[in-house]
């Protein structure tokens, strides 16, 4: 019995052990299942939230794109209407016609803003941006012509009709695309379908090119006109120099140069030999020397920082001497400012006592080393020609008298002022102060009328003329 | 017992791992893998000196006026903030600067916001696009942006040009939000002052990495550093 009992006991014990093991395993397994289940749910929720967020962002962006497209459509429709109204009044030069031209200009510029915020690739879009920009510039130039008493010429009318043709073709293109949007086309999805330089949206958007938006030539002197963009270099004269002569010229003006490295050529509006120069002050400069005349045209570089070893007067001397040596004639300093360790100087040539602002040269001098770390005479060489200028009828005292009495006069001088586009007018420039602000008034020496006002805006980074 | 422990360990691991997956996916969808913060800009050394001088004068700070924002300076700022009822975080932000009677530059002056914000945006784009380039290469990138503003084929504002879709890769991938360094600021400043080493270029590309076939068809004007500039 006792042996049997023992046996039974041991069997029971081992069963108990087995049971214990089983319950342990079951508990373990259920914990495992629970935790796994929970984590799966957690993961699911997390992913769901993330996907939901992503969906929200996508919808937001899609809505912004759609808004831009409909703004564009609106602006182009309005532009078409305003052009029709302008043309319906033919060439009567009325205030109404002027108003329509001004509004057409505004609509065109709104169209530019909307179109440039759509995800269109640069190569597909720039003709369109140019079209609306030029329409805006052209119509506002015509409006100004009417404002100053002119009327629209038959050429103007012809151009405006061509412009309207393009606007209508563009309108058709946009209408075609709008049908696709209505059927659920997604600009965002299209924009993500990228292929080389373009994307699906770009291709779909410009698919209706068979409507052929023609790009008319608008001949005018105003904002975005081709004549302003492609201004010719008028003032660069002299013999052609070789690369080594150019390099010698650099060494002549930068006597402390320890390293002069040829960096290739510039083949643009100006043709230059380019050099990088390291001097004994460890300053790194990039210098461009014109192939015609061998003048140093442009210098750019960052100067060192430390104690100021030269003052403003010293900087002015350095700038004027350098400019004279590099082909700039009869220059004086017309503007100076200092930011950190650098002095910024604007110098301009004078003719018959008149400052030639269109021929401005910009110089930046480091006050620690006295090195010219910035120089730009491209404007000078673009515009400088011999001009026969007269001081007209307006005296300096007369001009000062025209400034409103709330201003305190600082000084007055004669200046050739660049106005609008390709227009230069001899003026008396009166510098005056009011409420801690400095203003420049420009009075036409012939008519005495006010041509321009500039305000000096003080910033943390120097003064700015607006 | 060992087995149980092992199972528990595995489970814990699975749990932690899946939580990790959840948070990373969530992060990914919540704003891309590379999150760049430009919330707090560090003060310049000169500004730190001003802070130290002022705090020293008022007895909050006893260390040297060295322009370095170290633990002593931070503690002094915290003490100053506590005394003045500000959030005591040790960071000299707008409110603390105002209480100190100093200007943080671009952010607090009202008269200059217009031009300074243009400068800051331009500097950010230059930094993002060309921070490894020589100084003139950085001026050139800023000049291209300004040439585009003037061009009829591009938007007519600095922000319009910079944020035009696909115009700059560093805008697309978010590097535009990095804080620009001193050099980028100077280069942007020079370009705003009228410097343009490219003489009117509208495009640039790196010939080593450019994939666009269209860009190769443009007329190259010059090469500075790694960038070819073209019309």
What does the model show?
The complex is a heterodimer of chains A (466) and B (231). Helices cover 47% and strands 25% of the residues of chain A. Chain A is of the alpha+beta class. In chain A, the strands form two sheets. In chain A, strands 3, 4, 5, 6, 7, 8, 9, 10, 11, 12, 13, 14, 15 and 16 form a 14-stranded mixed sheet that branches. Chain A has a two-stranded antiparallel sheet with strand order 1-2. Chain A starts with a helix and ends with a strand. Chain B has helices spanning 2-29, 45-57, 71-83, 94-100, 113-130, 135-150, 158-162, 169-172, 182-192, 213-216; strands at residues 203-205, 220-224, 227-230. The termini of chain B are far apart. In chain B, 52% of the residues lie in helices and 5% in strands. Chain B folds into two domains: 45-100, Muramoyl-pentapeptide Carboxypeptidase, domain 1; 113-230, Arc Repressor Mutant, subunit A (Orthogonal Bundle). Mean pLDDT of chain B is 75; it is low at 21-41 and 105-114. Chain B has a three-stranded antiparallel sheet with strand order 1-3-2, with helices on one face. Chain B is built from ten helices and three strands; from the N terminus they run H-H-H-H-H-H-H-H-H-E-H-E-E. Chains A and B meet through helix 1, helix 2, helix 3, strand 3 and strand 5 of A and helix 1, helix 5, helix 6, helix 9 and strand 2 of B.
Please give the share of residues in helix of chain B. Answer: 40-55%
Helix-strand topology string of chain A: HHHHHEEHHHEEEEHEEEEEHHEEEEE
Number of beta-strand segments of chain A: 16
Return the CATH topology of the largest domain in chain B. Answer: Arc Repressor Mutant, subunit A
List unreliable stretches of 5+ residues of chain A: none
Q: What is the alpha-carbon Rg of chain B in Å?
A: 24 Å
